[in-house]
Specification:
alpha/beta; TIM Barrel; 8-stranded parallel barrel; two-stranded antiparallel sheet; 12 helices; globular; Bact_Lucif_Oxidored; CmoO-like; Luciferase-like_dom; LLM class flavin-dependent oxidoreductase
Length: 327
């Protein structure tokens, strides 16, 4: 058994030769596997205008995933709040919770998840949210998704939905110490984006714990880290399967955005690079070796839960990874 509950993040990646419809079908396959294996939660991301990622609208995808699974919690990893009206997000997740009581998570992030032009198309402005604005929008979403609601100047109370019987769990996500401290001050669940973040996970979680103030939602800190994983029966096969993630990593840094290539194509592309020095997936190896590394991460950071994600050409690789960790 894994030492803490295990969860999964999925980006609905588009594989070379595939379509967005294929990407969503793969997401449903992965979600059903996670549900069957007893994982804690299944989150979907928000990215825009990327040929390799079909997950652009978390509420729509969450509704589809929740309808195709039975018990696993389903949520956003995350909704990029600066792109949206806070009240619209509150209403969308209130509706999801009403449809699937006790199974919905609202993970909120501050990054745009898009380039400047796409951000303008989403927001009708290229201006982001400053810290104070983001803090206020987050507090409003939290209040709208609670029994208290928000008291208006007209003497009425504004809530996200009438006659709510339950509310989604709210998480703050991020890859910086700012998000960790804010989650602590507000008494929220926190997930560090370790699959791309460059900070020491244990140090970030320590900041979250030190800043934590108990709230009506959460009496004690609840930290989680998301990290990237690829497993296979041998180290050599695992490295082979991790090749497409390295090509994607290189593409993000060179402006070559494209669907996820095959391992064969990745090996061809990486021959011109020092592939061993490229770290696009944090844990690559046999199931035993990866489980040992993840257990060390859990112990070092004092995690309450661990989330994993995988960039791979086919969904079978991702399903096998979950099966190997949950075994």
């Amino acid at each position: 058994m894994f030492p803490v509950p295990l969860s999964v993040l999925d980006l609905s990646t588009v594989r070379a030769g595939g379509t967005s419809a294929d990407a969503f079908a793969d997401t449903f396959t992965l979600a059903q596997a996670a549900d069957r294996l007893g994982l804690e939660r299944f989150w979907v991301a928000e990215h825009h205008n990327m040929p390799s990622v079909a997950a652009t609208t978390p509420p729509v995808l969450i509704a589809a995933v929740a309808a195709r699974t039975e018990r696993i919690r389903v949520g956003s990893g995350g909704v990029m709040l600066p792109n949206h009206s806070p009240y619209v997000i509150a209403e969308q997740f209130a509706a999801l919770e009403a449809m699937h009581p006790g199974r919905i998570d609202l993970g909120i992030g501050r990054a745009p998840g898009a380039d400047q032009i796409t951000a303008w198309a989403l927001r009708r402005t290229q201006e982001g949210l400053g810290h104070e604005e983001f803090d206020e929008h987050l507090r409003l979403v939290r209040a709208w998704l609670s029994p208290s609601g928000v008291r208006t100047g007209m003497g009425t109370t504004l809530t996200a939905t009438p006659a709510a019987s339950s509310y989604p769990d709210i998480w703050l996500l991020g890859s910086s110490d700012y998000s960790a401290r804010l989650a602590g001050r507000l008494g929220l669940r926190y997930c560090y984006a370790g699959h791309f973040g460059q900070l020491d996970p244990a140090a970030v979680i320590a900041l979250y714990r030190d800043a934590f103030v108990p709230s009506a939602d959460l009496a004690e800190p609840y930290p989680m880290v998301c990290t990237s994983v690829i497993t296979a029966p041998t180290p050599e096969e695992a490295d082979w399967l991790a090749g497409p993630a390295k090509v994607m990593w290189l593409g993000l840094r060179t402006g070559r955005l494209e669907p996820i290539v095959t391992p064969e194509e990745a090996a061809h592309r990486l021959a011109a690079h020092d592939a061993a020095s490229l770290v696009a997936t944090k844990y690559v190896g046999t199931p035993d070796a990866v489980r040992e590394g993840l257990a060390e991460l859990v112990a070092d950071a004092g995690l309450a839960e661990l989330m994993v994600t995988a960039t791979a050409h086919d969904v079978a690789t991702r399903v096998a990874m979950l099966e190997s960790l949950a075994a």
